[in-house]
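Supplementary notes for students who missed Thursday's class. We covered one full example, reproduced here. Read the sequence, then the structure, then the short commentary at the end.
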Amino acid sequence: MHAVLTALGDRPAPPLAVLPAGSTNMTAHDLRCGGRLSRRRRALLALRDLPLETWPTLSRAPLALRCPNGRELRGFFFGMGMIVRGIEYWHASLRHGGGAGEWAAGAALLRVALGMLRREAPFDTPVQLPAVLDGDPLSPAPKSLFLASTMQRLFLGMTPFWGQEAGPLACTWLSDRPQGLGWRLPALLSGRARFLPPAAGFFSRRGETLSLTVEEPWVIDGEAYTDEGTLTLRAALPRTFVALAGPAPGAKGAR
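Structure (token representation):
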């Protein structure tokens, strides 16, 4: 999906359907296309002779990410720090472990969190990440995790966003060695703001445009890049997706 959206850019396209044939299928689940591949394939084939206006669809804006060299990428999820460590651990230890799907991704996340609590390298290595959200500079302190997304849920139903500002771009970050990460981790994964005070190193905001100066690898939709310099993130134009797992609330054409 990352490659298809990047190739399309802002050009118009018919409704897109996502088949859950990946490792975690995070994008597919968020776009109501998760579950068994065989079922979603049958659901897609069942639509082929029906009028387009009867298809269950939803609208969602991907991320648009401009690299330092001017190229633009599209996706739904951007991450640095702890996110990169988790993906590296996934590829090294879990990727060939029998297709555990979202649960394997959750295991990778917990392993990284445990490494941070134990202060084990490289899991507790923070990133220097100067950032500006809608013209407002964020704290220049090192960050152990940074993520930005236009998704409504991540893998295993996680919703680690609690910013109350307007804007389609949800951003969450942690300071280096945030206080009480162990007992606050469930609250972080579900975005329960009352347990996640900034004074303890937990932050979440929403906005329109984010600029980041990066010196380390970063990921978009699980794909790692090493472009250094200033990245600019915003919400791209919304696209229409086919909800193969059924109509979403407020979906059009769900008959």
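Commentary. The two ends are 26 Å apart (CA to CA). Residues 2-61 form one domain. If anything here is unclear, bring it to office hours.
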